[in-house]
Design goal:
The structure holds two protein chains of two kinds. Chain A is built from three helices and 15 strands. Chain A is mainly β.
């Protein structure tokens, strides 16, 4: 499910105006998109080319960008992933503790739920011009109550290579959701939902619609099942809190 | 051909109208109960005033203006009338528009922080200026932001903070037994007040200091 109380039309009146940097970043993406054909037209924040969206989601249009997801175990976590553990928790983790690593157009993240307990922990980073992996700039801790995330833990600590503020938040997939789609101005990002034991985790997504002075962000979210049928949609406005 | 008698149709229509009106009324009342519109009716978006003098006693005074006021998730606006003007809002909903800061929003204003993370200057935010600021308790705990640093708990003094991943409180006074009187925005059910806490001895809490005090 989505975080409680955050779906609905609450964001429509309070939409922050996109910053100049955000508009510029979106324009760059648009130009990159316009110059391509059916090949991937945009790169992810690590410099890799975005793969084409699955055929079930072709109706999203040519501008949709497929992000990547990877599940790794604690034992095989790279130094950057381990740095997130050090940054966020002093807990000793089991060797098979799963971590979900994501890379999208605006940055990257890692999410894990230590021992399957009541907390979800994440680290986020923005993008670099070289595409090299950037040190974590954001670190978030969410609390699970009644099987749901109490708050999406909106964070605005990271920036794109061009200096635009990147807002990030967790979205809980609804039952049967295979992909989460976030529409953000001209940028449409498709996030595969991780599947497997221990990785039923909220999906960390990003937006350029972060308003720094008010520390708020707006997410336009759709969720699709494996057939490409939309199973949920909504706009929610969230804020740095707690 | 069989037709319903007209009076019966009127009764059914009337019953439907009454039911719809009742449902609407219930909806409106419950919405009103959760939405006092405190922020909309009382708060502003005025610019802060940069200040060159920035003392711990001054920040203590700022903090005391929030004492006995409400708590709002992601909030940062309060009226100094010693009443929670928006009690009973749904918890952890940033859109309820109630009175008060949350723990990190309260700290942001009392510490007179900037909306630019790289700016260590001090800014006077009016208590009716609605702002939460850039940081969660967890980010304060890590000393994020130019003016903020982690600090040994043993050396903390008044208006330094103790922060965990989910909460932050400011030291109002230190008790002889090693506990502290903490001024904090505690939660929807508690509002903002001073309580004796053992955060200093709690391994989940770290010491945080705002730099740049002039006295």
């Amino acid at each position: 499910m989505f975080p409680r109380v955050r779906l609905g039309g609450t964001g429509q009146r309070g939409l922050p105006l996109p910053s100049v940097a955000a508009v510029a970043a979106t324009a760059v993406l648009l130009l990159a998109s316009a110059c391509g054909d059916s090949k991937p037209r945009a790169r992810l924040s690590d410099g890799s080319p975005a793969e084409a969206v699955p055929s079930a989601l072709k109706h999203l249009g040519a501008a949709a960008l497929l992000t990547t997801v990877r599940t790794v175990r604690f034992l095989s976590l790279d130094p950057r992933g381990r740095a997130c553990v050090t940054l966020t928790t002093g807990l000793a983790l089991a060797p098979d503790q799963p971590f979900v690593e994501r890379v999208d157009h605006l940055g990257s993240s890692v999410t894990f739920r230590p021992h399957g307990g009541p907390f979800v922990i994440g680290c986020t980073s923005g993008s670099t011009r070289s595409g090299s992996k950037k040190a974590w700039c954001g670190h978030v801790v969410g609390e699970i109550r009644g099987d749901h995330l109490a708050d999406p833990r909106f964070d605005i600590a990271c920036r794109t290579a061009g200096g635009a503020a990147v807002g990030s938040a967790w979205i809980e997939p609804v039952h049967n959701a295979r992909w989460i789609v976030v529409r953000d101005h001209a940028l449409t990002q498709v996030y595969p939902v991780a599947t497997g034991a221990g990785v039923a985790l909220p999906v960390r997504v990003t937006t350029l619609s972060a308003d720094i002075p008010t520390a708020t962000g707006v997410f336009r979210v759709e969720q699709y099942d494996k057939a490409g049928t939309r199973v949920a949609e909504g706009t929610f406005r969230t804020a740095v809190a707690g | 051909m069989t037709t319903h008698p007209r009076p019966w149709r009127h009764v059914r229509r009337l019953a439907g109208t009454i039911a719809a009106a009742a449902a609407l009324l219930v909806g409106v009342q419950s919405a009103r109960a959760f939405h006092t519109q405190f922020v909309a009716l009382n708060c502003n978006t005025n610019n802060p005033q940069r200040t060159s003098t920035f003392t711990r006693s001054g920040s203590t005074a700022v903090a005391l203006h929030a004492r006995y006021e409400g708590y709002q998730w992601a909030g940062g606006c309060w009226k100094d009338n010693n009443i929670d003007d928006s009690p009973g809002d749904p918890t952890e909903n940033p859109n309820t528009g109630g009175e008060g800061g949350d723990c990190s929003g309260f700290t942001f204003k009392v510490w007179r922080e900037s909306t630019n993370e790289n700016d260590a200057g001090a800014y006077q935010w009016n208590m009716l200026r609605n702002i939460h600021g850039l940081y969660t308790a967890d980010r304060f705990r890590h000393g994020d932001g130019a003016p903020n640093v982690t600090y040994a708990k043993s050396g903390l003094i008044g208006m330094d903070a103790l922060a965990s991943y989910h909460h932050i409180g400011l030291i109002y006074a230190t008790n002889a037994d090693g506990t502290d009187q903490i001024i904090e925005a505690k939660g929807e059910a508690y509002g903002t007040n001073i309580w004796t806490r053992t955060y200093r001895g709690d391994t989940n809490y770290s010491g945080v200091r705002r730099l740049g005090w002039t006295g």
